[in-house]
Amino acid sequence: FKNRNEIRGIVHFSNTEKYTKYQMALLIASIFQLPIDHIERDQNIGIDTNVQRPNNAALDSSKLSNEFSIHINQVKFETTIKQCLQPFI
Q1: What burial class does residue 6 get, using C-beta atoms within 10 Å of its C-beta: 0-12 exposed, 13-18 middle, 19+ buried?
Q2: 3-state SS, residue 35
Q3: Residue 34, phi then psi, degrees to nearest 5
Q4: Torsion, CA 40, CA 46, CA 49, CA 50, rounded to 10
Q5: 85 with 28: CB under 8 angstroms?
Q6: What is the per-residue pLDDT across 20-61, written as a single tens digit (0 to 9) for each?
Q7: At 2, is the pLDDT very low, low, confident or very high (cuts 50, 70, 90)?
Q8: CA separation for the pair 80, 78 (Å, rounded)
Q9: Alpha helices (H) in 1-89, listed in sequence order
Q10: Nearest-CA neighbor of 13 among 46, 75, 61, 48?
Q11: Domain residue spans in the chain?
């Protein structure tokens, strides 16, 4: 695109890796060599509740490349989360 005014609508950017919050917690603990004995998987997954959640809440980033020819190199979640949290650990 030649002009930013050509961009219309909502455009998402998201990594294609898939993690549950539980998996992210285990990964973060592993990266920083933290204990995991207190981390528990949600046992209510799949149980009929009043709360409706989608199976897959991933954002679709295809509009960037398909409509605007913008190709962004994705960085692994593990790499990024380590860089972001390192100053606080």
Answers
A1: exposed
A2: coil
A3: -100, 155
A4: 110
A5: yes
A6: 889 999 999 999 999 999 999 887 766 666 777 777 778 888
A7: low
A8: 6
A9: 21-31, 62-68, 77-85
A10: 61
A11: 4-40+56-88
